[in-house]
Structure formats: structure tokens, C-alpha cells
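Incident log, support desk, overnight shift.

02:14 A customer reports that sequence design results differ from what the structure should imply. Their input is reproduced verbatim below. On-call engineer (initials T.W.) acknowledged and began investigating.
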């Protein structure tokens, strides 16, 4: 994907973008493109609770807070970010351990999350309700480990 000059500022400043960015933050995004690694890094930050448009700065990002404060679309995006970050981390871990590109763990995570007509997402949100005091990435990691191993 190649962005044209000014494309990000037009898209992000549109009335449909709910949380306008700090202009200084936008300098970190290249105007010539946005890499898959950059997207994965953003997903990991999102999953780790480093960015939360709905919680106060003093509020810990527990599963209970996420379930209470986030709208359904925000929650799905947040969970997807956690899964994407963990899938990429698994790919990197497996590849380093094997000494060659290894996608089986990552594929297992993607298959688990995207198959079954939303069953995995329902399991995740049920676990969030059951363990509201835990961090969402910890809960998702436990479910992934149960299904795909380490």
C-alpha cells in the first residue's frame, strides 16, 4: 500500500474518525507507506492496553473495564488487535526456534479466531466476564494456549 502525500491527514481528520490524533504522533507514520510490521506493532500496543480511547488514564485495562466501557465495535477491534499481536508474536517465536519460516502456530491462532461463526469471540467475551479482574491479553493468551499450545 502506498499513501499519497496528505492522505493520512485527510482520512484521520474526517468527521468519521472519532479520536483525532495528536499532530506530533502523526510524524511517526510514514507518508510513503505503512508496513505490516508497523501494523503488528500497533496491534501489540493496542492489545497491551497502551492505547485506550474509552478508559481513563488511571483505570487499569482489566477485562471487566473493557466489557463495561467499550462499545461492541471497539471491543471487537481491541480483541482482534490482541489476537493479531499474539499470532505475529507466535510466528516470530516459532521461526526463531526452528531457524526457518514457520507459520503453523500463527495459522492455528488465525484458524481458531476466524472459524466457527464467531464461537471463539464469544468464548473470549465469556472469559472476560468470568475473569473481570485479569488483563484481556492474559485471558486471550490462555485461550490460545489451550487451543494451539505454546
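02:41 Re-run completed on a clean worker. Output:
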Amino acid at each position: 500500500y502506498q499513501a499519497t502525500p496528505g492522505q493520512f491527514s485527510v482520512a484521520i481528520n474526517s468527521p468519521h474518525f472519532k479520536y483525532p490524533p495528536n499532530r506530533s504522533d502523526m510524524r511517526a507514520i510514514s507518508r510513503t507507506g505503512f508496513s505490516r510490521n508497523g501494523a503488528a506493532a500497533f496491534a501489540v500496543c493496542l492489545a497491551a492496553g497502551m492505547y485506550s480511547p474509552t478508559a481513563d488514564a488511571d483505570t487499569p485495562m482489566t477485562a471487566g473495564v473493557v466489557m463495561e466501557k467499550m462499545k461492541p465495535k471497539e471491543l471487537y477491534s481491541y480483541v482482534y488487535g490482541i489476537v493479531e499481536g499474539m499470532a505475529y508474536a507466535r510466528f516470530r517465536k516459532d521461526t526463531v526456534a526452528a531457524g526457518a519460516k514457520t507459520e503453523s502456530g500463527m495459522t492455528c491462532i488465525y484458524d481458531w479466531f476466524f472459524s466457527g461463526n464467531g464461537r471463539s469471540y464469544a468464548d473470549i467475551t465469556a472469559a472476560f466476564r468470568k475473569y473481570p479482574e485479569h488483563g484481556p491479553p492474559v485471558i486471550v493468551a490462555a485461550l490460545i494456549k489451550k487451543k494451539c499450545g505454546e
